[in-house]
Specification:
Bound molecules: flavin-adenine dinucleotide
Helix content: 25-40%
Number of strands: 18
Shape: globular
Strand content: 15-25%
Largest sheet: 7 strands, antiparallel
Oligomer: single chain
Radius of gyration: 23 Å
Distance between the termini: 37 Å
Structural class: alpha+beta
CATH architecture of one domain: 3-Layer(aba) Sandwich
Number of helices: 14
CATH topology of one domain: Vanillyl-alcohol Oxidase, Chain A, domain 3
Length: 497
Protein backbone atom coordinates (compact mmCIF):
# COMPACT_ATOMS: atom_id res chain seq x y z
CA UNK A 1 0.00 0.00 0.00
CA UNK A 2 2.77 2.41 1.05
CA UNK A 3 4.67 1.59 -2.15
CA UNK A 4 1.66 2.51 -4.28
CA UNK A 5 1.34 5.86 -2.49
CA UNK A 6 5.06 6.60 -3.04
CA UNK A 7 4.83 5.63 -6.74
CA UNK A 8 1.80 7.88 -7.20
CA UNK A 9 4.08 10.83 -6.32
CA UNK A 10 7.22 9.62 -8.07
CA UNK A 11 5.77 8.85 -11.50
CA UNK A 12 4.52 12.43 -12.16
CA UNK A 13 7.85 13.81 -10.84
CA UNK A 14 9.78 11.57 -13.26
CA UNK A 15 7.54 12.62 -16.16
CA UNK A 16 8.03 16.29 -15.27
CA UNK A 17 11.81 15.79 -15.16
CA UNK A 18 11.81 13.98 -18.53
CA UNK A 19 9.91 16.90 -20.08
CA UNK A 20 12.39 19.34 -18.57
CA UNK A 21 15.32 17.26 -19.75
CA UNK A 22 14.12 17.28 -23.34
CA UNK A 23 13.46 21.05 -23.14
CA UNK A 24 17.01 21.44 -21.81
CA UNK A 25 18.65 19.30 -24.49
CA UNK A 26 16.58 21.01 -27.23
CA UNK A 27 17.79 24.38 -25.95
CA UNK A 28 21.43 23.23 -25.75
CA UNK A 29 21.26 21.75 -29.25
CA UNK A 30 19.71 24.94 -30.63
CA UNK A 31 22.63 26.89 -29.09
CA UNK A 32 25.11 24.34 -30.56
CA UNK A 33 26.67 23.66 -27.15
CA UNK A 34 28.34 20.22 -27.22
CA UNK A 35 26.58 17.76 -24.92
CA UNK A 36 26.83 14.16 -23.79
CA UNK A 37 23.78 12.10 -22.89
CA UNK A 38 23.57 8.78 -21.06
CA UNK A 39 23.57 7.06 -24.45
CA UNK A 40 26.87 8.71 -25.53
CA UNK A 41 29.85 6.31 -25.77
CA UNK A 42 31.99 8.57 -23.57
CA UNK A 43 29.27 9.05 -20.91
CA UNK A 44 30.81 6.71 -18.36
CA UNK A 45 34.26 8.31 -18.47
CA UNK A 46 32.77 11.81 -18.33
CA UNK A 47 30.71 11.05 -15.21
CA UNK A 48 33.12 8.81 -13.27
CA UNK A 49 33.96 10.48 -9.96
CA UNK A 50 37.53 10.52 -8.62
CA UNK A 51 36.12 8.98 -5.43
CA UNK A 52 34.67 5.66 -6.56
CA UNK A 53 32.90 5.20 -3.21
CA UNK A 54 30.22 7.56 -4.51
CA UNK A 55 27.59 7.28 -7.20
CA UNK A 56 26.36 10.25 -9.19
CA UNK A 57 23.37 10.73 -11.41
CA UNK A 58 23.55 13.66 -13.83
CA UNK A 59 21.24 13.72 -16.85
CA UNK A 60 23.34 15.82 -19.24
CA UNK A 61 27.00 16.82 -19.51
CA UNK A 62 27.77 20.02 -21.43
CA UNK A 63 31.27 20.68 -22.70
CA UNK A 64 31.31 24.38 -23.61
CA UNK A 65 34.22 25.53 -25.78
CA UNK A 66 33.91 29.27 -25.22
CA UNK A 67 32.63 31.69 -22.63
CA UNK A 68 29.71 32.44 -24.96
CA UNK A 69 28.78 28.74 -24.86
CA UNK A 70 28.93 28.78 -21.04
CA UNK A 71 26.49 31.70 -21.15
CA UNK A 72 24.17 29.90 -23.59
CA UNK A 73 24.24 26.65 -21.61
CA UNK A 74 23.45 28.44 -18.36
CA UNK A 75 20.57 30.32 -20.01
CA UNK A 76 19.17 26.92 -21.05
CA UNK A 77 19.53 25.58 -17.51
CA UNK A 78 18.01 28.75 -16.08
CA UNK A 79 14.96 28.67 -18.35
CA UNK A 80 14.32 24.99 -17.57
CA UNK A 81 15.08 25.22 -13.82
CA UNK A 82 17.88 22.68 -14.11
CA UNK A 83 20.45 22.33 -11.36
CA UNK A 84 24.01 22.82 -12.61
CA UNK A 85 27.38 21.82 -11.21
CA UNK A 86 30.64 22.89 -12.84
CA UNK A 87 33.36 20.29 -13.11
CA UNK A 88 37.05 21.07 -13.41
CA UNK A 89 39.45 18.29 -12.30
CA UNK A 90 36.66 16.16 -10.79
CA UNK A 91 38.64 15.59 -7.55
CA UNK A 92 35.95 16.69 -5.10
CA UNK A 93 35.92 14.34 -2.09
CA UNK A 94 32.11 14.30 -2.37
CA UNK A 95 31.92 14.28 -6.20
CA UNK A 96 30.20 17.66 -5.97
CA UNK A 97 31.36 18.62 -9.48
CA UNK A 98 29.08 15.87 -10.76
CA UNK A 99 26.16 16.64 -8.44
CA UNK A 100 24.02 18.73 -10.80
CA UNK A 101 21.40 17.44 -13.22
CA UNK A 102 23.49 19.26 -15.80
CA UNK A 103 27.25 18.99 -15.40
CA UNK A 104 29.29 21.72 -17.05
CA UNK A 105 32.66 20.17 -17.82
CA UNK A 106 35.27 22.94 -18.16
CA UNK A 107 37.83 20.72 -19.88
CA UNK A 108 38.06 23.03 -22.92
CA UNK A 109 39.26 25.93 -20.74
CA UNK A 110 42.96 25.12 -20.82
CA UNK A 111 44.63 28.52 -21.18
CA UNK A 112 47.78 29.10 -19.13
CA UNK A 113 49.47 32.37 -20.06
CA UNK A 114 51.82 34.71 -18.27
CA UNK A 115 52.34 38.45 -18.59
CA UNK A 116 55.96 39.18 -17.66
CA UNK A 117 55.25 42.91 -17.28
CA UNK A 118 52.72 42.35 -14.46
CA UNK A 119 53.81 38.83 -13.36
CA UNK A 120 50.12 37.89 -13.49
CA UNK A 121 49.05 34.54 -14.98
CA UNK A 122 45.73 33.77 -16.66
CA UNK A 123 44.56 30.24 -15.97
CA UNK A 124 41.53 28.59 -17.57
CA UNK A 125 39.19 26.94 -15.07
CA UNK A 126 39.64 23.44 -16.47
CA UNK A 127 43.41 23.26 -16.03
CA UNK A 128 44.85 20.55 -13.76
CA UNK A 129 47.47 21.68 -11.23
CA UNK A 130 50.40 19.71 -12.67
CA UNK A 131 49.85 21.09 -16.15
CA UNK A 132 49.52 24.63 -14.76
CA UNK A 133 52.76 24.34 -12.78
CA UNK A 134 54.66 22.91 -15.75
CA UNK A 135 53.48 25.65 -18.10
CA UNK A 136 54.14 28.51 -15.67
CA UNK A 137 57.69 27.30 -15.17
CA UNK A 138 58.21 27.01 -18.92
CA UNK A 139 56.79 30.51 -19.51
CA UNK A 140 58.83 32.43 -16.94
CA UNK A 141 60.16 30.14 -14.19
CA UNK A 142 57.17 31.17 -12.08
CA UNK A 143 55.13 29.30 -9.49
CA UNK A 144 51.76 29.54 -7.74
CA UNK A 145 51.01 27.90 -4.37
CA UNK A 146 48.80 24.83 -4.72
CA UNK A 147 48.25 21.25 -3.58
CA UNK A 148 50.44 18.28 -4.28
CA UNK A 149 48.22 16.14 -6.53
CA UNK A 150 48.78 17.05 -10.17
CA UNK A 151 45.33 15.82 -11.28
CA UNK A 152 43.35 18.22 -9.09
CA UNK A 153 41.58 20.92 -11.13
CA UNK A 154 42.11 24.63 -10.52
CA UNK A 155 38.32 25.21 -10.74
CA UNK A 156 37.50 23.49 -7.45
CA UNK A 157 40.91 24.12 -5.84
CA UNK A 158 41.12 27.88 -6.24
CA UNK A 159 37.48 28.54 -5.39
CA UNK A 160 37.64 26.66 -2.05
CA UNK A 161 41.22 26.94 -0.75
CA UNK A 162 44.33 25.42 -2.27
CA UNK A 163 47.02 24.48 0.23
CA UNK A 164 50.54 23.46 -0.69
CA UNK A 165 53.71 23.20 1.36
CA UNK A 166 54.57 26.60 -0.12
CA UNK A 167 51.35 28.19 1.20
CA UNK A 168 52.87 29.58 4.38
CA UNK A 169 55.37 31.34 2.10
CA UNK A 170 52.92 32.52 -0.59
CA UNK A 171 49.33 31.96 0.64
CA UNK A 172 46.59 29.60 -0.46
CA UNK A 173 45.85 29.33 -4.17
CA UNK A 174 42.80 31.54 -3.68
CA UNK A 175 44.94 34.24 -2.06
CA UNK A 176 46.79 34.70 -5.34
CA UNK A 177 43.64 35.47 -7.36
CA UNK A 178 43.43 39.08 -8.47
CA UNK A 179 40.43 38.80 -10.79
CA UNK A 180 37.90 36.18 -11.93
CA UNK A 181 35.97 35.87 -15.19
CA UNK A 182 32.75 33.99 -14.59
CA UNK A 183 29.17 33.50 -15.72
CA UNK A 184 26.21 33.85 -13.35
CA UNK A 185 23.38 31.31 -13.12
CA UNK A 186 21.19 33.37 -15.47
CA UNK A 187 23.88 33.39 -18.17
CA UNK A 188 25.30 36.87 -17.50
CA UNK A 189 29.07 37.17 -17.93
CA UNK A 190 30.83 39.03 -15.10
CA UNK A 191 34.30 39.97 -13.92
CA UNK A 192 34.90 39.99 -10.19
CA UNK A 193 37.83 41.59 -8.39
CA UNK A 194 38.52 43.69 -5.31
CA UNK A 195 37.16 46.69 -7.23
CA UNK A 196 34.43 45.10 -9.39
CA UNK A 197 31.57 42.92 -8.11
CA UNK A 198 33.31 42.85 -4.78
CA UNK A 199 30.74 40.68 -2.97
CA UNK A 200 30.93 38.03 -5.67
CA UNK A 201 34.75 38.14 -5.58
CA UNK A 202 34.64 37.59 -1.82
CA UNK A 203 32.23 34.64 -2.19
CA UNK A 204 34.10 33.03 -5.10
CA UNK A 205 37.39 33.08 -3.15
CA UNK A 206 36.53 30.47 -0.51
CA UNK A 207 32.97 29.28 -1.12
CA UNK A 208 33.05 29.47 -4.92
CA UNK A 209 30.99 26.51 -6.15
CA UNK A 210 27.38 27.68 -6.25
CA UNK A 211 27.98 31.37 -6.92
CA UNK A 212 29.04 31.42 -10.59
CA UNK A 213 30.79 29.25 -13.15
CA UNK A 214 34.37 30.48 -13.36
CA UNK A 215 35.86 30.51 -16.84
CA UNK A 216 39.30 31.88 -15.93
CA UNK A 217 41.37 33.25 -13.06
CA UNK A 218 44.02 35.95 -13.03
CA UNK A 219 46.63 35.05 -10.43
CA UNK A 220 49.73 36.50 -8.87
CA UNK A 221 52.82 34.41 -9.59
CA UNK A 222 56.10 34.06 -7.71
CA UNK A 223 59.66 33.33 -8.84
CA UNK A 224 60.05 29.54 -8.56
CA UNK A 225 62.65 28.90 -5.84
CA UNK A 226 65.86 27.57 -7.47
CA UNK A 227 66.66 25.35 -4.47
CA UNK A 228 63.99 23.17 -2.87
CA UNK A 229 64.73 20.56 -0.22
CA UNK A 230 62.08 17.85 0.06
CA UNK A 231 62.59 16.27 3.46
CA UNK A 232 61.02 13.47 5.54
CA UNK A 233 62.10 11.85 8.80
CA UNK A 234 60.30 8.69 9.94
CA UNK A 235 60.26 7.34 13.50
CA UNK A 236 58.48 4.31 14.90
CA UNK A 237 57.72 4.85 18.59
CA UNK A 238 57.30 1.83 20.78
CA UNK A 239 54.29 3.16 22.71
CA UNK A 240 51.25 5.34 22.13
CA UNK A 241 52.38 7.69 24.92
CA UNK A 242 55.69 8.31 23.16
CA UNK A 243 53.94 8.96 19.84
CA UNK A 244 51.58 11.42 21.56
CA UNK A 245 54.50 13.21 23.18
CA UNK A 246 56.35 13.30 19.84
CA UNK A 247 53.29 14.81 18.16
CA UNK A 248 53.00 17.40 20.91
CA UNK A 249 56.69 18.36 20.47
CA UNK A 250 56.40 18.49 16.68
CA UNK A 251 53.17 20.48 16.87
CA UNK A 252 54.74 23.10 19.13
CA UNK A 253 57.90 23.28 17.00
CA UNK A 254 55.85 24.09 13.88
CA UNK A 255 53.90 26.84 15.58
CA UNK A 256 56.88 28.55 17.16
CA UNK A 257 60.06 27.66 15.25
CA UNK A 258 59.15 26.91 11.62
CA UNK A 259 59.89 29.93 9.42
CA UNK A 260 57.52 30.44 6.52
CA UNK A 261 60.15 29.06 4.11
CA UNK A 262 59.70 25.68 5.82
CA UNK A 263 56.69 23.75 4.50
CA UNK A 264 55.88 21.46 7.42
CA UNK A 265 53.62 18.56 8.30
CA UNK A 266 53.26 15.72 10.81
CA UNK A 267 52.03 12.43 9.36
CA UNK A 268 50.97 9.16 10.95
CA UNK A 269 50.80 6.05 8.77
CA UNK A 270 50.02 2.33 9.34
CA UNK A 271 52.82 0.46 11.12
CA UNK A 272 53.01 3.28 13.70
CA UNK A 273 55.09 5.36 11.30
CA UNK A 274 55.44 8.85 12.73
CA UNK A 275 56.75 11.18 10.05
CA UNK A 276 57.73 14.83 10.05
CA UNK A 277 58.06 16.07 6.51
CA UNK A 278 57.96 19.07 4.23
CA UNK A 279 59.87 21.19 1.78
CA UNK A 280 62.40 23.87 2.63
CA UNK A 281 62.56 26.64 0.06
CA UNK A 282 66.22 27.53 0.43
CA UNK A 283 69.67 26.05 1.08
CA UNK A 284 69.86 22.69 2.85
CA UNK A 285 72.37 23.97 5.43
CA UNK A 286 69.76 26.46 6.68
CA UNK A 287 67.12 23.75 6.86
CA UNK A 288 69.44 21.44 8.80
CA UNK A 289 70.06 24.19 11.32
CA UNK A 290 66.32 24.90 11.74
CA UNK A 291 65.30 21.25 12.09
CA UNK A 292 68.20 20.15 14.35
CA UNK A 293 66.52 20.95 17.72
CA UNK A 294 63.31 19.19 16.65
CA UNK A 295 65.10 16.07 15.41
CA UNK A 296 67.21 15.96 18.56
CA UNK A 297 64.09 15.86 20.75
CA UNK A 298 62.25 13.34 18.57
CA UNK A 299 65.32 11.08 18.43
CA UNK A 300 65.92 11.26 22.17
CA UNK A 301 62.27 10.24 22.72
CA UNK A 302 62.98 7.25 20.44
CA UNK A 303 65.74 6.03 22.84
CA UNK A 304 68.38 7.66 20.65
CA UNK A 305 67.41 5.69 17.55
CA UNK A 306 67.90 7.91 14.47
CA UNK A 307 64.98 8.34 12.05
CA UNK A 308 64.86 7.02 8.51
CA UNK A 309 65.70 10.12 6.47
CA UNK A 310 64.79 10.98 2.87
CA UNK A 311 66.18 14.36 1.85
CA UNK A 312 66.41 15.57 -1.75
CA UNK A 313 67.73 18.94 -2.85
CA UNK A 314 66.37 19.81 -6.27
CA UNK A 315 64.81 22.32 -8.66
CA UNK A 316 61.20 23.48 -8.58
CA UNK A 317 59.70 21.04 -11.06
CA UNK A 318 61.55 18.06 -9.57
CA UNK A 319 60.32 19.04 -6.11
CA UNK A 320 56.69 19.25 -7.26
CA UNK A 321 57.06 15.94 -9.09
CA UNK A 322 58.37 14.23 -5.95
CA UNK A 323 55.44 15.61 -3.93
CA UNK A 324 52.96 14.28 -6.48
CA UNK A 325 54.66 10.89 -6.43
CA UNK A 326 54.14 10.15 -10.14
CA UNK A 327 54.32 12.65 -12.98
CA UNK A 328 53.54 16.33 -12.89
CA UNK A 329 51.98 16.63 -16.33
CA UNK A 330 48.70 14.81 -16.68
CA UNK A 331 46.27 13.97 -19.44
CA UNK A 332 43.92 16.84 -20.29
CA UNK A 333 41.29 14.43 -21.62
CA UNK A 334 40.96 10.80 -20.56
CA UNK A 335 42.43 11.32 -17.07
CA UNK A 336 41.48 8.14 -15.21
CA UNK A 337 43.07 8.04 -11.75
CA UNK A 338 40.81 7.22 -8.81
CA UNK A 339 40.56 6.21 -5.19
CA UNK A 340 37.75 4.75 -3.08
CA UNK A 341 37.74 6.61 0.23
CA UNK A 342 36.22 8.57 3.06
CA UNK A 343 37.91 11.48 4.85
CA UNK A 344 37.30 14.03 7.56
CA UNK A 345 39.24 17.14 8.50
CA UNK A 346 39.63 19.51 11.42
CA UNK A 347 41.33 22.90 11.61
CA UNK A 348 42.97 23.68 14.93
CA UNK A 349 43.31 27.23 16.15
CA UNK A 350 46.82 28.61 16.50
CA UNK A 351 45.88 29.71 20.01
CA UNK A 352 44.69 26.21 21.01
CA UNK A 353 46.91 23.37 19.79
CA UNK A 354 45.78 19.81 20.49
CA UNK A 355 46.28 18.99 24.16
CA UNK A 356 48.44 16.11 25.32
CA UNK A 357 45.29 14.54 26.79
CA UNK A 358 43.61 14.50 23.38
CA UNK A 359 46.77 13.20 21.68
CA UNK A 360 47.26 10.44 24.26
CA UNK A 361 43.69 9.35 23.68
CA UNK A 362 44.06 9.36 19.86
CA UNK A 363 47.34 7.45 19.81
CA UNK A 364 46.00 4.95 22.39
CA UNK A 365 43.15 4.32 19.94
CA UNK A 366 45.51 3.97 16.95
CA UNK A 367 47.96 1.69 18.74
CA UNK A 368 45.27 -0.69 20.00
CA UNK A 369 42.63 -0.73 17.25
CA UNK A 370 43.70 -2.24 13.96
CA UNK A 371 42.04 -0.87 10.83
CA UNK A 372 39.52 -3.10 9.01
CA UNK A 373 41.15 -5.60 6.62
CA UNK A 374 42.26 -4.31 3.19
CA UNK A 375 42.35 -0.69 4.32
CA UNK A 376 44.87 2.07 3.75
CA UNK A 377 44.63 4.98 6.16
CA UNK A 378 46.62 8.04 7.16
CA UNK A 379 46.50 11.15 9.28
CA UNK A 380 48.10 14.24 7.76
CA UNK A 381 48.55 17.38 9.86
CA UNK A 382 49.80 20.28 7.76
CA UNK A 383 51.00 23.48 9.37
CA UNK A 384 48.95 26.45 8.13
CA UNK A 385 49.95 28.90 10.87
CA UNK A 386 53.29 29.47 12.61
CA UNK A 387 55.80 32.31 12.31
CA UNK A 388 55.12 34.63 9.38
CA UNK A 389 52.50 32.40 7.75
CA UNK A 390 51.01 34.24 4.78
CA UNK A 391 47.77 32.20 5.12
CA UNK A 392 47.11 33.82 8.49
CA UNK A 393 48.26 37.27 7.37
CA UNK A 394 44.90 38.08 5.73
CA UNK A 395 41.98 39.54 7.72
CA UNK A 396 39.20 37.17 8.84
CA UNK A 397 36.40 36.72 6.31
CA UNK A 398 34.05 38.81 8.47
CA UNK A 399 36.38 41.83 8.47
CA UNK A 400 34.95 44.57 6.21
CA UNK A 401 38.38 44.76 4.51
CA UNK A 402 38.38 41.04 3.67
CA UNK A 403 38.30 40.01 0.00
CA UNK A 404 37.93 36.28 0.68
CA UNK A 405 35.26 34.11 2.31
CA UNK A 406 37.92 31.55 3.33
CA UNK A 407 37.19 31.37 7.03
CA UNK A 408 40.27 30.19 8.91
CA UNK A 409 42.84 32.95 9.18
CA UNK A 410 43.90 31.96 12.69
CA UNK A 411 44.65 28.31 12.02
CA UNK A 412 47.39 26.19 13.50
CA UNK A 413 47.13 22.91 11.61
CA UNK A 414 44.66 21.28 9.23
CA UNK A 415 44.39 17.60 10.08
CA UNK A 416 43.04 15.16 7.55
CA UNK A 417 41.90 11.65 8.56
CA UNK A 418 41.71 9.47 5.46
CA UNK A 419 40.71 5.85 4.91
CA UNK A 420 40.51 4.03 1.59
CA UNK A 421 40.43 0.54 0.18
CA UNK A 422 43.98 -0.83 -0.01
CA UNK A 423 43.52 -1.49 -3.73
CA UNK A 424 42.09 2.05 -4.29
CA UNK A 425 39.15 0.29 -6.02
CA UNK A 426 35.63 -0.57 -4.85
CA UNK A 427 34.01 -2.23 -3.04
CA UNK A 428 34.21 0.14 -0.09
CA UNK A 429 33.75 -1.45 3.31
CA UNK A 430 31.72 0.91 5.53
CA UNK A 431 33.86 -0.13 8.49
CA UNK A 432 36.56 2.10 6.95
CA UNK A 433 34.25 5.08 7.43
CA UNK A 434 33.59 4.03 11.02
CA UNK A 435 37.34 3.73 11.59
CA UNK A 436 37.99 7.24 10.23
CA UNK A 437 35.20 8.71 12.36
CA UNK A 438 36.59 6.90 15.42
CA UNK A 439 40.07 8.35 14.84
CA UNK A 440 38.58 11.85 15.01
CA UNK A 441 36.28 10.87 17.87
CA UNK A 442 39.22 9.56 19.88
CA UNK A 443 40.53 13.14 20.18
CA UNK A 444 37.53 13.84 22.41
CA UNK A 445 35.35 16.87 22.97
CA UNK A 446 37.99 19.53 22.34
CA UNK A 447 37.77 18.98 18.56
CA UNK A 448 33.97 18.62 18.31
CA UNK A 449 33.26 22.22 17.38
CA UNK A 450 36.43 22.95 15.46
CA UNK A 451 36.13 24.17 11.89
CA UNK A 452 37.08 21.99 8.92
CA UNK A 453 38.76 22.52 5.55
CA UNK A 454 36.21 22.86 2.71
CA UNK A 455 38.35 21.25 -0.04
CA UNK A 456 38.37 18.02 2.04
CA UNK A 457 34.58 18.07 2.14
CA UNK A 458 32.78 15.41 4.11
CA UNK A 459 29.50 14.36 2.47
CA UNK A 460 28.33 12.82 5.75
CA UNK A 461 27.76 16.32 7.17
CA UNK A 462 24.36 17.94 6.66
CA UNK A 463 24.39 21.14 4.61
CA UNK A 464 23.95 23.27 7.75
CA UNK A 465 26.76 21.46 9.59
CA UNK A 466 29.06 21.74 6.56
CA UNK A 467 28.35 25.44 6.07
CA UNK A 468 29.14 26.13 9.72
CA UNK A 469 32.35 24.08 9.72
CA UNK A 470 33.65 25.45 6.40
CA UNK A 471 32.54 29.08 6.44
CA UNK A 472 31.64 29.84 10.08
CA UNK A 473 30.68 33.44 10.70
CA UNK A 474 30.69 34.17 6.94
CA UNK A 475 27.54 32.07 6.37
CA UNK A 476 24.94 34.88 6.67
CA UNK A 477 26.80 37.06 4.12
CA UNK A 478 27.24 34.10 1.77
CA UNK A 479 23.51 33.32 1.96
CA UNK A 480 22.68 36.96 1.20
CA UNK A 481 25.02 37.03 -1.83
CA UNK A 482 23.62 33.71 -3.10
CA UNK A 483 20.09 35.12 -2.98
CA UNK A 484 21.25 38.05 -5.12
CA UNK A 485 23.31 36.22 -7.75
CA UNK A 486 21.35 32.97 -7.99
CA UNK A 487 17.89 33.38 -6.44
CA UNK A 488 16.54 30.28 -8.24
CA UNK A 489 19.32 28.08 -6.84
CA UNK A 490 20.44 26.91 -10.29
CA UNK A 491 24.12 26.46 -9.41
CA UNK A 492 24.32 23.49 -7.11
CA UNK A 493 26.76 22.53 -4.41
CA UNK A 494 25.17 20.05 -1.99
CA UNK A 495 27.13 21.39 0.99
CA UNK A 496 27.54 24.97 -0.12
CA UNK A 497 25.13 27.72 -1.09
C1 LIG B 1 44.13 13.13 -4.55
C2 LIG B 1 43.76 14.49 -4.02
C3 LIG B 1 44.75 15.31 -3.51
C4 LIG B 1 44.42 16.58 -3.01
N1 LIG B 1 45.41 17.37 -2.50
C5 LIG B 1 45.09 18.59 -2.02
C6 LIG B 1 46.10 19.44 -1.48
O1 LIG B 1 47.29 19.08 -1.45
N2 LIG B 1 45.73 20.66 -1.02
C7 LIG B 1 44.43 21.09 -1.04
O2 LIG B 1 44.16 22.22 -0.64
N3 LIG B 1 43.45 20.29 -1.53
C8 LIG B 1 43.75 19.07 -2.01
N4 LIG B 1 42.76 18.25 -2.49
C9 LIG B 1 41.37 18.71 -2.43
C10 LIG B 1 41.02 19.51 -3.69
O3 LIG B 1 41.59 20.80 -3.60
C11 LIG B 1 39.49 19.65 -3.79
O4 LIG B 1 38.90 18.38 -3.84
C12 LIG B 1 39.09 20.48 -5.00
O5 LIG B 1 37.81 21.04 -4.76
C13 LIG B 1 39.07 19.67 -6.28
O6 LIG B 1 38.87 20.49 -7.36
P1 LIG B 1 38.53 19.86 -8.79
O7 LIG B 1 38.32 20.96 -9.73
O8 LIG B 1 39.54 18.81 -9.12
O9 LIG B 1 37.17 19.08 -8.46
P2 LIG B 1 35.71 19.18 -9.08
O10 LIG B 1 35.04 17.96 -8.51
O11 LIG B 1 35.73 19.34 -10.53
O12 LIG B 1 35.12 20.48 -8.40
C14 LIG B 1 35.04 20.63 -7.00
C15 LIG B 1 33.99 21.70 -6.68
O13 LIG B 1 34.32 22.91 -7.34
C16 LIG B 1 33.28 23.30 -8.24
N5 LIG B 1 33.88 23.82 -9.46
C17 LIG B 1 34.73 23.19 -10.30
N6 LIG B 1 35.03 23.98 -11.34
C18 LIG B 1 34.37 25.15 -11.14
C19 LIG B 1 34.27 26.34 -11.90
N7 LIG B 1 34.90 26.49 -13.05
N8 LIG B 1 33.46 27.32 -11.44
C20 LIG B 1 32.78 27.17 -10.26
N9 LIG B 1 32.85 26.05 -9.51
C21 LIG B 1 33.64 25.05 -9.94
C22 LIG B 1 32.49 22.03 -8.49
O14 LIG B 1 31.15 22.29 -8.89
C23 LIG B 1 32.60 21.32 -7.18
O15 LIG B 1 31.64 21.78 -6.27
C24 LIG B 1 43.06 16.99 -3.01
C25 LIG B 1 42.07 16.16 -3.53
C26 LIG B 1 42.41 14.91 -4.01
C27 LIG B 1 41.32 14.00 -4.52
Amino acid sequence: MQLIVVLQFLIPLAAAFNARRSALTDCLNAASVPILLTSSPSWQGATKPYNLRLTVNPAVVTIPRTKAEVEEALKCAYSTNTRVSAKSGGHSYSASGLSGNMVMDMVEFQEVSYDASTTIATVGSGVRLGNMATKLFQLGERGIPHGTCSGVGIGGHATLGGFGLDSRLWGLTLDTITSIDAVLANGTAVTASSSQNRDLFWALRGAGPGFAVVTSFKMKTFPAPPVNVNWAYTYVYSTAQKAAKAYSIAQAFGQTDAPKELGYGILFFPGNQFIVRGVYYGPKANMDRILAPLLEQLTSLNDGKAPKAVVNTQGWIASLTELDGTTLQTLVRGYDKHDTFYAKSITTKESAPLSLTALNSMFAYLYTNPAPPNTWWMIISNLYGGPGSVINSFPPSTDPASTSSYADRDSGYVLQFYGSTASTRPPFNNQIMTYVKSMVGSLGDEVKNLPAYAPYNDPELTRAEAQQKYWGAGVPRLKAIKSQVDPKGILYNPQGF
